[in-house]
Amino acid sequence: MGRLLRVPEGARVDLSSYDAEGTPGGPADKAAGLEATARLGERLAGLQERLWAGATAGDRRRILLVLQGMDTSGKGGTVKHVIGPLNPSGCRVRSFKAPTQQERKHSFLWRIRRALPQPGEIGIFDRSHYEDVLIGRVRELAPPTEIEARYGQINDFEKALADDGVTVIKCFLHISYEQQRRRLLERLDNPDKHWKFNPGDIDERALWPAYQEAYELALERCSAIPWYVVPADRKWFRNWAISKLLLEHLEELDPQYPKADFDVTECRNRLSKDH
Fold it and tell me: Closest by alpha carbon to 16, among 208, 151, 182, 171?
């Protein structure tokens, strides 16, 4: 899966060449996709437990899953369906909105560093440090020279994470302009979803070309740690693909349960006599 979705390092990116409705390497249809995702969840849960257990014996490895995408691309839905089967004790989910007054007093990476997963954890970022070269660029929230400098700072930051035992999985949830419109209308049609709708989302749609360009630049300039472009028009495929990516990275890490640092036989004998 990683091979099919990975953005080659340093390659030019044209998002219009990616099919947001595609299902590369995926199950045959939605029913098969839902069944496959459930099976992946069982395997993910087992590997997550091993990763979490390993940290008790000093294994510092952990995973950071970064989810970026336009509004309605399914960042929250991905967290719900992909992370749902996992033990919440070993997960750290953080959603990044507009920076607070305190956060604005620091470097744009300050709040990111404070939210990183600890050894043994799987961290999930719903939006991330990339907001500062996405909306920051489109809305001109910082001088152009500062925005340009951030690409290099992000690369250095992510390389340092990798050196410290963090496996960073960066996913761009690629939704089409028309599919976003349909999902926004669905929110308006359902009173129970009005809380998820913001009239400002319509204003942001007017800036779609600028956002696509900003994403292309981010995917090009920050690809030393690979990006994965995940087609997101089909929710079932999006969830399956990210589950598969997460599983592939966990299998590569191959975490192991730590061996007992006590005499198992002696403890069993003591308990056997305790009655």
Answer: 208
